């Protein structure tokens, strides 16, 4: 039973409860990220990951509904098909390309953006229940991790060439709509390609001449032994 149900209405009016009520507790959810996007200067998709809680039978049901994720949140529907996602990404681009800061309300969604050369990074959450600070930390961590992985060259060409690393960085930042990590260095460390044990061999004209000279000497030695 709720504690506020045990108190007289007069006391509740004069001394509102300071503990979480049913309404405020409904907004406490780990599922805070609806989508993670990278768009180019024309609004075309470079990377897009849309999230939903696991074991979701239908949009707006299951865990998402029970935890009160809110309209526009992960698993709440409206972005299930490719057509809906493309239209949404176009709306995001139209909304954010005009400037006006890094936080953009696009009901029922809240969009946080960060631009870099010819790309823009976006994190999307539900407008009614989002924690802007958490979304901002996730966005900055993902952007900075990509910067570390691509050695500071965050351009469309480089992102496409290293798309495997960028996708892994996205997976290490957000999973099923839950923010996992906000430390860019930790994210980059988990997805960096392992260095080979062998040293790199530089092949040039001098290397070929040395190999030819060595081979020539060994052949001459073998002939002299006959």
What can be said about this structure in brief?
This protein is α+β, with helices and mostly antiparallel strands and 226 residues long. It has helices spanning 9-14, 22-25, 63-66, 82-96, 132-149, 156-161, 163-173, 184-191, 205-225; strands spanning 35-40, 45-50, 103-106, 109-116, 119-126, 174-175, 178-179.
Poorly predicted sequence stretches spanning 5 or more consecutive residues: 1-7, 17-26
Strand order of the largest sheet: 2-1-5-4-3
Strand content: 15-25%
The helicity comes to 40-55%
Query: Could you give a short account of the major beta sheet?
Result: 5 strands, antiparallel
Class by SSE composition: alpha+beta
Written as H for each helix and E for each strand, in order along the chain, the element string is: HHEEHHEEEHHHEEHH
Q: Please give the alpha-carbon distance between the first and last residues.
A: 101 Å
Average of the residue pLDDT scores = 78
**Cα-based radius of gyration, to the nearest Å:** 27 Å
Number of strands: 7
Number of helices: 9
Task: Name the overall outline.
Answer: elongated
Question: Secondary-structure blueprint of this entry?
Answer:
Blueprint: H1 9-14, H2 22-25, E1 35-40, E2 45-50, H3 63-66, H4 82-96, E3 103-106, E4 109-116, E5 119-126, H5 132-149, H6 156-161, H7 163-173, E6 174-175, E7 178-179, H8 184-191, H9 205-225
Antiparallel strand pairs: 1-2, 1-5, 3-4, 4-5, 6-7
Helix pairs in contact: 5-7, 5-8, 7-8
Notes on the structure:
By secondary structure, the protein is an alpha+beta fold. Helix content is 41%, strand content 16%. It is built from nine helices and seven strands. The protein has helices at 9-14, 22-25, 63-66, 82-96, 132-149, 156-161, 163-173, 184-191, 205-225; strands at residues 35-40, 45-50, 103-106, 109-116, 119-126, 174-175, 178-179. The strands form two sheets. The protein has a five-stranded antiparallel sheet with strand order 2-1-5-4-3, with helices on both faces. It has a two-stranded antiparallel ribbon with strand order 6-7. A hairpin with a 2-residue loop joins strand 6 (174-175) and strand 7. It is elongated, with a radius of gyration of 27 Å. The relative contact order is 0.13.
């Amino acid at each position: 039973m709720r504690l506020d149900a045990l108190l007289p209405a007069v006391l509740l009016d004069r001394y509102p409860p300071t503990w979480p009520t049913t309404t405020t507790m409904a907004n406490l959810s780990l599922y805070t990220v609806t989508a993670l996007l990278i768009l180019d200067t024309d609004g075309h998709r470079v990377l897009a990951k849309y999230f939903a809680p696991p074991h979701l039978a239908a949009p707006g049901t299951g865990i998402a509904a029970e935890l009160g994720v809110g309209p526009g949140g992960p698993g709440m529907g409206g972005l299930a098909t490719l057509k809906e996602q493309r239209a949404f990404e176009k709306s995001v681009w139209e909304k954010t390309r005009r400037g006006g800061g890094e936080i953009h309300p696009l009901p029922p969604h809240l969009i946080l953006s960060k631009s870099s050369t010819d790309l823009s990074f976006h994190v999307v959450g539900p407008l009614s229940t989002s924690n802007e600070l958490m979304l901002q930390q996730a966005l900055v961590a993902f952007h900075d991790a990509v910067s570390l992985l691509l050695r500071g060259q965050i351009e469309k060409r480089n992102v496409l060439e290293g798309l495997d690393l960028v996708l892994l960085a996205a997976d290490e930042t957000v999973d099923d709509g839950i923010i996992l990590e906000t430390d860019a260095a930790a994210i980059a460390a988990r997805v960096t390609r392992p260095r080979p044990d062998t040293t790199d061999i530089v092949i040039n004209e001098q290397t070929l001449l040395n190999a030819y000279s060595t081979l020539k000497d060994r052949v001459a030695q073998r002939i002299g032994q006959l």
